[in-house]
Give the backbone structure.
Amino acid sequence: MPPGTRDALIDAATRLLDQGGVEAVTLREVGRLAGVSHNAPYKYFPSKEALLAAIAARELTARRDALDATSRRGLAPEAVVRSVMRQYIAWVLAHPARFKLIYGKWSIDSAELGEAAHAAQEKLVEIVAAAQDAEALPPGDPVRLAALIRALAHGAADLAAADHLAAGGKGHADPEDLVDDLLGYLRPGVPGRA
Amino acid sequence: MPPGTRDALIDAATRLLDQGGVEAVTLREVGRLAGVSHNAPYKYFPSKEALLAAIAARELTARRDALDATSRRGLAPEAVVRSVMRQYIAWVLAHPARFKLIYGKWSIDSAELGEAAHAAQEKLVEIVAAAQDAEALPPGDPVRLAALIRALAHGAADLAAADHLAAGGKGHADPEDLVDDLLGYLRPGVPGRA
DNA sequence: ACCTGAACACCGTTCAAGT
DNA sequence: ACCTGAACACCGTTCAAGT
């Protein structure tokens, strides 16, 4: 079954999510796009939220694969870190509804979702640790430094997506600028930004 | 009219928001809590989303006032910055639904909401600029440095609220730790974290 | 000016029934 | 095993009507 009803449902729901946000994802419209009735999804997912969790898990796995691909490209360790942060921001701005969905509130907890998130997080820690080994990032707990870097990219992207970065929007501070600023401050042994 | 139906509606909606997230805010329940019918809100707000925007604007104004109060407390400039970041994180963790609402997707644009966001942002820039003047933060465009600091607090708090900080949740990296780490890296003239 | 009750189109979910 | 159509309770919004 190459298409597969289950995948067709996830595809349809993802399309609706991208086009109109999570509130545009109705089971009736998902069914219509997938060519089934509006309650066929209940054969594959116990609830609408479980369908949304499947979208989120699939997306997080794709993000982890993207991190993996970047880390294998043969770039210098610091370039990998910078590239990964830029990709994160580009992803949020390209698919804000997927981003909001993943980090929004969940009433159910999907093991698939939790594991996908964990895998992506671990990949980033590896990348940061490699940059530390090359002395391109300051020493210390790589989990903690990865969390710092990721939190900045996450916050900058979210504020940019919500149009709350540097109120007035003069391009005074794009999320990419903030990434560069942070990496500048993190450069080991070099005081300040210079 | 001390209570005032309009304020009673915002109060009721805020209570529902805090208790069950934005999806728990239904006009029927808002009306019931406020002691009016389920369509009385339409006399004060053109839509449900406009009522939500009023909540968001009120909250942003309260945040600005909190920033203002902290900056007038007579603390050293660096202590003000640290205190303000901790307050931001505490606010997100205490009222995640208000936070998600403010930075979520808006189909309408409320002038009140935009102005409240701008006022809060400007207050933070003032605080950062004062710390720069006291050489407690590195020099440069205060708007940009304020954006960096805020983006980190925003991202760390959002990831913590969504339980995505340092997957595994061992307290390896609390949002407050990340704030301290960033301020350490930003200390002018001192290389690294030491 | 402020509020109500009935009505409309829509939604998630359940269920009996079909193949 | 997989899917459908009818039904239920709920929702945002509109509207005619009341004071």
Summary: Chain B touches chain A through 51 residues (CB under 8 Å). The mean pLDDT of chain B is 94. The helical segments of chain B are 5-20, 27-34, 48-71, 77-94, 96-102, 111-133, 142-161, 175-186.
